[in-house]
UniProtKB/TrEMBL annotation:
Pfam families: Nitroreductase. It comes from the Bacteria. Keywords: Oxidoreductase. SUPFAM superfamilies: FMN-dependent nitroreductase-like. This is Nitroreductase family protein. CDD domains: Nitro_FMN_reductase. Residues 11-175 form the Nitroreductase domain.
């Protein structure tokens, strides 16, 4: 697929993750090798990648994730609660919320869970863009590499409600912070296409707001 096809057809895969088909570690490593080519501030490369395949640990992470998801869905500010004054967009938001609920119930069943982390003894006060800007591009590169290899992923940070508990479970040091959880599995179907987005001219500002 061309770069444009890759970038416009990558979707958050939740309901269509194949929960029964194993994912070879070699394939995950290929995606992570590509992720390591992403930029970092000062070429610091302070990232770490936790790849979870052990069934018991996947279940434990999934249990925390499920609890966080249920709280999110009941918060009144979940995806499904947004844009209620726009019937067409509200329908899309309800589908997103429904798929989020599915993933919340099945996170522990996904064959591979990848948590992207970064060294940070403490979180910066104020603007944290410099810190997370040295991790999140690499996580996105991982997801793109996975898509190009027939794997589905989803970007989620709901697990961070239980960041310390998951750190204890996985032995993550205190000076390493988690940034994003990416469930990874083969996907079912081949109907990925560009999503409906706001028109560019509604969000574009040239030279001033």
């Amino acid at each position: 697929m061309t770069p444009d096809e890759l970038l416009t057809t990558i979707r958050s895969v939740r309901k269509r993750l194949d929960l029964t088909r194993p994912v070879p570690m070699e394939l995950v490593r290929e995606c992570l090798e590509i992720a390591l080519q992403a930029p970092t501030g000062g070429n610091s490369q302070g990232w770490h990648w936790i790849v979870i395949t052990d069934p018991d640990k996947r279940k434990a992470v999934g249990d925390y994730y499920g609890r966080a998801t249920r709280a999110y869905l009941g918060s009144g500010s979940s995806a499904g609660d947004l844009f209620q004054d726009d019937p067409e967009r509200a329908a899309t938001q309800r589908r997103v919320s429904d798929s989020a609920a599915f993933l919340g119930e099945h996170m522990g069943d996904v064959p591979v869970l990848v948590i992207a982390c970064i060294e940070a003894a403490r979180l910066p006060e104020g603007n944290q863009a410099g810190l997370w800007g040295s991790l999140l591009p690499a996580a996105w590169s991982y997801m793109l590499a996975a898509r190009a290899r027939g794997l589905g992923t989803a970007w989620t940070s709901l697990h961070l409600v239980y960041e310390s508990e998951i750190a204890d479970l996985l032995g993550i040091p205190a000076n390493v912070r988690q940034g994003v959880l990416m469930p990874t599995a083969y996907y079912t179907g081949e109907t990925f296409r560009p999503a409906r987005r706001q028109p560019l001219d509604e969000v574009l500002h040239v030279d001033s707001w």
